[in-house]
Amino acid sequence: MIAPSILSADFARLGEEIEVVSGTGDARADWVHVDVMDGHFVPNLTIGLPVVESLSRVSRVPLDCHLMIDDPDRWAPDYAERGAYNVTVHAEAAHDPVMLAKNLRAAGAQAGLSVKPGTSLEDHLEVLKHYDTLLVMSVEPGFGGQSFIPEVLDKVRLARRLVDTGHLRLLVEIDGGINDDTIEQAAEAGVDCFVAGSAVYGAEDPGVAIERLRRRVNRCGAHP
Ligand code: DX5
Ligand code: ZN
């Protein structure tokens, strides 16, 4: 799966920018990744609930909301209620992640848990049993266009192994620095869903960029 991040899109034309990646065949995004930042959990401020609600009404592709915010226990279920398909919260910010996953699902969304590059997965394995997606950050959250941190692939390999052996049931997603040069190593490590911001929206034709990323994943013949 490919999930273009609209963090690198033109914020004055977000509806059209989503439409650009909602084409057909291999050029169609599987999810559209929406980065919500609160200026506290990360040193950047982007968009919030009203914008997500408006985008969920016009988007033909499911919205994947990545909440880089403090106190997600309080705010995240609202995103599920307003139409997000998958709502990801940060393990470093959640107070009661098991209850939060239950609340997200009760509000109609899939529940995602994200870990920053320096956060170990081992501490969160029990909690992950309650989640539908694991978002492994491959850059420090906050900004698009940063360089991929290959060391996080150990976490992807661990998660992949636990899923393949039936200990976890979730989708493994990676976010940060994914482009034509890095996507194959992530695919080989066992990623299911690739977030790409600048590699898609910085390209002349975002649809062609999605096709190209998809081709690289398929070519390395890694996990389906
Ligand atoms: C970073 C965001 C990412 C970002 C990725 O904090 O979570 O989703 O948009 O951008 P690229 O693909 O340019 O690294
Ligand atoms: Zn993100």
In a nutshell, what does this entry contain?
Helices cover 35% and strands 18% of the residues. It is of the alpha/beta class and 224 residues long.
Q: Going across the major beta sheet, what is the strand order? A: 1-8-7-6-5-4-3-2
- CATH secondary-structure class: Alpha Beta
User: What is the count of structural domains?
Assistant: 1
Bound small molecules, by name, code or SMILES, are: D-xylitol-5-phosphate, zinc ion
User: What's the order of the H and E elements?
Assistant: EHEHEHEHEHEHEHEHH
Average pLDDT number: 97
Strand content: 15-25%
Major pleated sheet: 8 strands, parallel
From the coordinates shown, what is the CATH architecture? Answer: Alpha-Beta Barrel
Question: In which range does the helix fraction lie?
Answer: 25-40%
Q: Please name the CATH topology.
A: TIM Barrel
Structural class: alpha/beta
Structure annotation, total helices? 9
pLDDT < 50 runs, ≥5 residues: none
What is the overall shape?
globular
Oligomeric status of the shown chains?
Answer: single chain
The name of the CATH superfamily reads: Aldolase class I
Catalytic activity: D-ribulose 5-phosphate = D-xylulose 5-phosphate
Cofactor: Zn(2+); a divalent metal cation; Mn(2+); Co(2+)
Binding site for substrate: 5, 66, 142-145, 175-177, 197-198
InterPro entries: Aldolase_TIM, Ribul_P_3_epim, Ribul_P_3_epim-like, RibuloseP-bd_barrel
